[in-house]
Structure formats: structure tokens, C-alpha cells
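Usage

Read records sequentially. Each one opens with the input sequence:
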Amino acid sequence: MALLLLIIVGASAGWFASIVARTEAVGAILRQMGIGLVVSLIAGLLMNSGTMLGGLSLIALGTATGAAIAALVLYHLFFTRRSDRVDA
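and closes with the structure output:
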């Protein structure tokens, strides 16, 4: 159950990031969902005592959500600005 919940949290964070950033390209939306998914799985695994079997603690869920959001913010700070500089 913990694995499924972390997958949903990570993919949702990436999807919401694409809405906030007004990303319209399908590849960019999928990339953001992938980043959110991977980061939330890693953070949730680390905070849930290294196991994905059974339940998920509230601390692990919060950490996974926060880590996914932070990773997506950093992604947009570095890669969006870099593409703006190339175009200008």
C-alpha cells in the first residue's frame, strides 16, 4: 500500500507542477511526473525505515511530498531559466 501511495503522490506532484508552470508539451509533462515519482519513492523509502511493505508513516508521506515539490521547483529553476537564456 505504501508503494502505491508514493507513486500517486509523486505523479500528482509532477502533474500539478506542470499545471502551475503552464507546461503544454507532453514530453515535459511526463518528465515532471517522472521526476516527482522517483523523488517521492526515494524519500518515502528512506523515511519509512527502508521498507515499502505494509503501511506508510505520516512523516514518510510528508517527506515524500515535500521532496517531490522541492525537486520540481529546482528543476524549473535550473532548466526553465537555461532554456530562456538560449532563446534570448
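Summary fields computed downstream for this record:
- The chain is about 80% helix and 0% strand.
- The mean pLDDT is 82.
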